[in-house]
């Protein structure tokens, strides 16, 4: 197979696996269901990815990279706004289902140091992109300067984690826009004293 | 049995069940394991609680009420600070394990309207306590007055959800204090313009 074919095959596996994880959860995504969802044999799937864990982590990495791209251009709050819009944009797949799968692995993340290390490696890219964006914003004078960039980065990431959890639990999202406005304002500019 | 005995028995079941859910997760907390953890027969357990779901929701309600008490006196940020301290305070049981169980039911919350309604009923108490506290704080002049109390309530709840998720995933908590300071400041007082 040519590199193009390999890349396309890899994409086919990832897209099918993502839908499968979203629909059945991490534990429920059996090898048989992964075969059905990707339209490929287990041999073909695990030729590209060592095991289910690697497949899941590749999807998490994909997502972190996509988010990091948005962060670089528009900031982490925009990533959150995109998550709110997602249900409208995507058809067929429910974004909340995939977000929920991320929550379902929390026990594994907590108890399996190797899995946690592999996950952390992937999510580190998002943290780095967020920190770099904030540093650039500070240099441009758009960021508050009385709080450390590390604290602001953790703050934004904590809100993102809250939003992921909120959406994954199917809680109402329609009133979240003013909350994200507040989050953005907290990081960006100083308010006038009243 | 007297009411005191019934209350003590109920407490015994809840304490054992909480440890069992924390240790094995929602799905992993089988009836057999619940019997072991509580030291009681399934007959005795399900005399007090209709089913496993009711047991889990009673624990969630317990927790919401405990948090609502702290909120009334000290606010929702204090609830978050308590969560950070929890690992040190409790011995034997890991707070993150129970928090993780809450995440594991996210798929169920999303897909089972009846379960979601029962869960929402319980978490509503925390929202109400938070909103009431903020209204009192506003009346006392301690709260910013340019953002609606509903938005501030949702903001604090979103950060709490993020913190629960963060701790449940076993992510580092040691640098969270300045982040919570920032959250508190965002809600409470106006900053001077720079």
UniProtKB/TrEMBL annotation, chains A, B:
State the UniProt keywords alphabetically. DNA-binding, Transcription, Transcription regulation
Q: List, alphabetically, the InterPro entries matched.
A: DNA-bd_HTH_TetR-type_CS, Homeodomain-like_sf, HTH_TetR, Tet_transcr_reg_TetR-rel_C_sf
What Gene Ontology molecular function terms does this protein carry? DNA binding
The residues that make up the annotated DNA-binding region are: 30-49
Q: What is this protein called?
A: Transcriptional regulator, TetR family
| A Pfam entry, by short name | TetR_N
Q: Identify the SUPFAM superfamilies for this entry.
A: Homeodomain-like (SSF46689), Tetracyclin repressor-like, C-terminal domain (SSF48498)
Q: Does the keyword field hold Plastid?
A: no
- Please list the residue ranges annotated as the HTH tetR-type domain: 7-67
């Amino acid at each position: 197979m040519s590199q193009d074919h390999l890349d396309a095959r890899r994409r086919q596996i990832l897209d099918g696996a993502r839908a499968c994880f979203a629909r059945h959860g991490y534990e429920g995504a059996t090898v048989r269901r992964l075969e059905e969802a990707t339209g490929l044999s287990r041999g073909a799937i695990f030729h590209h990815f060592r095991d289910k864990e690697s497949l899941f982590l590749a999807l998490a990495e994909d997502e972190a990279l996509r988010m990091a791209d948005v962060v670089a251009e528009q900031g982490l709050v925009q990533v959150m706004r995109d998550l709110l819009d997602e249900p409208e944009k995507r058809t067929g797949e429910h974004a909340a289902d995939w977000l929920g799968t991320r929550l379902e692995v929390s026990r594994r993340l907590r108890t399996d140091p190797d899995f946690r290390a592999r996950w952390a490696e992937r999510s580190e890219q998002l943290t780095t992109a967020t920190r770099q964006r904030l540093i650039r914003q500070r240099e441009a004078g758009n960021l508050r300067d009385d709080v450390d960039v590390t604290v602001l980065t953790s703050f934004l990431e904590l809100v993102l984690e809250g939003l992921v959890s909120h959406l994954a639990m199917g809680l109402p999202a329609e009133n979240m826009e003013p909350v994200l406005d507040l989050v953005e304002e907290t990081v960006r500019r100083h308010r006038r004293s009243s």
